[in-house]
Amino acid sequence: MSALRQSTEGQRCVLDDVLRAQARRRRLGRCGLAVGTLLFVVLAGLVLSSGRQPGAGVARTGAVTATRAPAGSRAAALALARQMLARLVVPPGSRAAYPSPVPPPLNVSAAGDALPYTVELHRFVLVPEPAAAVRSFLLAHVPAGMSWAGDGLAQGTVTVLSVDYRPRSLASGLTNAELSTAAMPADGDTLIRVDAGVSWFPPRSAAEQLTATSFRSVAVTATEVFPRSRTVTRIFTSPAVIGRLVALVDSLPATPYPDVAAMSCAADSTVYQLEFTPGLVVYAGGCGGSDAITVNGTDQPRLWDPGVLTTAARQLLYLTA
What we know:
Blueprint: H1 15-45, H2 74-87, E1 95-97, E2 118-127, H3 131-140, E3 146-155, E4 159-167, E5 174-186, E6 189-200, E7 217-224, E8 230-236, H4 239-251, E9 270-277, E10 280-286, E11 290-295, E12 298-304, H5 308-317
Antiparallel strand pairs: 1-2, 2-6, 3-4, 4-5, 5-6, 7-8, 7-9, 9-10, 10-11, 11-12
């Protein structure tokens, strides 16, 4: 949905901040869907049960072979964005448009603010049909290899109709790809802004990879604030448990949205912490679906985590979801 930055009279529209925030929440939320399946497969393969003996994948030292965290590239994200733009199906009689200046609110990207690990491409199409007919056509003609991802209407001085799509599958290292359309009336025709956005996971440095044998123990803590206040902690010295948790941490990609550290989010009813001795603390399930990590009190790059470490912590603490 395009953010309505201002009205046609040049006054700021009250929907601007609301729709921009919705776009950001949608982007952050959908990123988890893209990697969730992969990471929960990893979790299933590294069953965390302190009472079990190490499986075949666990060496006598307690170490396990960590799944490499997915990483993408700007080039791959750009190629997919171009492909998505080309796949859009438009009504007969449509033609490329190059409005100058671009009329508000179509002068604003559907994705909101620019992000460091996201590419955004756009183009304009002029359709000789009413906006409602264009929206119906777009809903009925989902691009090849994609699925419907949402549609809506924003009413201000100008009414904007949106239809969004996303790929049914993504290459490893890419996430949160979306093709968004925003249509508004234009002198009897309809002007469409088409945005293609793709994020990628930045690579994690070798220094960010953990080694299970470096840690003597791990304290897993759940602090519940609702419906009642309580804290549950278990300390594990088993090399198997330490190794499996380290493997999970190493399997998580770096978040493509590093600015989540500055976000203000509603507090979860339960927060989880994994404190490895010596010196490493993981705060699981943080803002924007990311895990914060500190080494000897120093912040490290955040990890994107759709619930892998919180699920592992609940298993180890025998807590229900």
